[in-house]
Amino acid sequence: MASPPSQHPRDRGRATRRLDVFYLMTPAQAGAFARCGVIKRDCIVDGDTLYVGGTKLRVADIDTPEISEPKCASKEALGECATERLIELVNAGPFEISGWQARDEDQYGRKLRVLIRDGRSLGDILVSEGLARTWTGRREPWC
Fold first, then answer.
1. N or C: which end of the chain has fewer CB within 10 A?
2. What is the pTM of this model?
């Protein structure tokens, strides 16, 4: 098991612990997220997937419509709105990244994490705005 995060000011935001992960996006890092392009670093893939550094994360507490292969126009529109809102949320200031229950990764190799600011899940914000669903353990159709 890894040692707990360092509390030295210059080390804040760098420490992680496996499964019970804690990572704080510093003010310099927050505000730098955009849609992913060729370089997959500190960018947003869709409403529930992003890269932090070079690591692909799945926002574990929510599900949003896929935008890469939408099955209907309403799903595509909602997925685009969720993606844009996630960009706004992660760029609004520092946030914590914490582990998800007992699973570290999903079947696609994405790290399962929850994004938290001021004690509130950013995923919960997307759910409250009608842009996501609370994750129940399986995908439900959006169309």
1. N
2. 0.79
